[in-house]
Each structure stands twice: as structure tokens, then as C-alpha cells.
Amino acid sequence: MANVSVYNMEGKEVGKIDLSDAVFGVKVNEHLVHMAVVQHLANKRQGTQKAKTRSEVSGGGRKPWRQKGTGHARQGSTRSPQWKGGGVVFAPVPRDYSFKLNKKEKRAALKSALTSKVMDEKIVVVDELKFEEIKTKNFKTVMDNLKVENGLVVLAENDQNVILSARNLPAVETTSIGTLNVYDVMKAGKVVLTKDAVSKIEEVYA
After folding, report:
1. Sheet of 172-176: strands edge to edge?
2. pLDDT of residue 190
3. What are the angstrom distances between the C-alpha of 50 and each of 84, 106, 183?
4. Confidence bin at 205 (pLDDT 50/70/90)
5. CA–CA dist 166, 188 (Å, integer)
6. For residue 34, how many other CB atoms are within 10 A of its CB?
7. How many Å apart are CA 1 and CA 24, to the nearest integer?
């Protein structure tokens, strides 16, 4: 069972917390982590790209010159792919890139991602994150105190003061337990968890 320090918003250590091995101490399955990241990126693709094939390009109904005797190569249409303004060979068409992962695979991948962060000592637990007002400067000060430059802040609930205070920091993202995903965890330099968030994650994923 991993034992990590708990810090306050000033960056001072205020205690220790034991992380459940059922979530933060599993055997890391790199293949599942890879599949979860690929799925996340694939599901974000719009898939709306489109180009016209030779059958969809307007014009080109008449043969540009007779078959024989001109010295040119034979041509059937000015909209063939080799012509300027012609159609595209194997043109891309709108499609859905998304695919499914089983619920058990998703859970196992997230546990593996969190465990890898614990192993790399990239997990920071803070006793609480509370702001009286929406102010980016205050949030930036807390991140500096915790020595987090590029991070993912995981909250137990949607605290708008925290979320909106972090919104203008390009290297910091916030998420809640319900939207926590493997891609964001792996992309983050450090994962900042509140004590309440740790309890909820262990409750949901253990």
C-alpha cells in the first residue's frame, strides 16, 4: 500500500495518506493504457473530411479529343484524377472513427494509469482546494506552492470557483471523478488529487 504525503494549499506537508492497492497499486497493463488513449483520441475525431471522386466532380462529360490520330494519350474525361480539376482517387468520405472498449478494460486502464503515476511519484494529494473568489492568480499560487507546472487537478465535485480559476492556465486542467480518463492522466506531468477525490476514486474503482 503506497503511503504519500498530504499537503495544504500553502505547499506544507500536513500528514500522510495510504492509497488503496486495489486502485493505486495494480499491475500496470501497458496495452490497455495504450488502447484507452487511442480510443479517446479516435472518439474525438470529427470524421467530416470529404473530397470528390471523379463521379462527383462536375463537368467532363465529353471526350476531350478523339481516340486516335492526335498524338496525345487517349483520354475519356477532363475530370479523370490526372487532370487539373479532376476527382481524387480513393477520396476520403465522412466516417465515424470511434470504437468501444469494455467497461472492465476502461477501469483496468485507468487503474494502471494511476498506478504508473504513483510509481513515478507524480501524484500530489492536497487536503482541500477552496477559493472564496474566482481568481487565476490565487490558483496559480497554489500550483506553485505544490510545485506543479503541468498538471491535472482531480476534484471530488464540481467546484466552480476552482474550475474557473484554473481555466486560463494552459498547462493545468481540472476534472471530476465522473470525467476522469486515461488520456488526461497520462498527458499530465503531475496528478493533483484532493483527499475527498482519493476517497471517491477508491470507492468507485476499488
Report:
1. 13-19, 2-7, 123-126, 190-194, 151-155, 172-176
2. 93
3. 18, 32, 28
4. confident
5. 15
6. 13
7. 8
Q: Whole-angstrom Cα distance, residue 205 to residue 107?
A: 7
Strand (E) or helix (H) holding 93:
none
- 38 CB contacts (<8 Å, ≥6 apart)? none
Q: Which secondary structure element, helix H or strand E, spans residue 21, and what is its range?
A: helix 21-24
Look at residues 123, 143, 110, 116 and name the one whose alpha carbon lies nearest to residue 190: 123
pTM of the model: 0.81
Cα angle 156, 193, 170 (rounded to 5 degrees) comes to: 100
Q: Of the candidates 100, 99, 106, which has an alpha carbon nearest to the alpha carbon of residue 181?
A: 106
C-alpha cell at 113: 494509469
How many Cβ atoms are within 10 Å of 52's Cβ, its own excluded?
A: 14
DSSP, collapsed to helix, strand or coil, labels residue 15 as strand
3-state secondary structure of 52: coil
| pLDDT of 137 | 94
Q: What is the CA angle 7-9-15, rounded to 5?
A: 20
Q: Classify residue 14 by its DSSP letter.
A: E
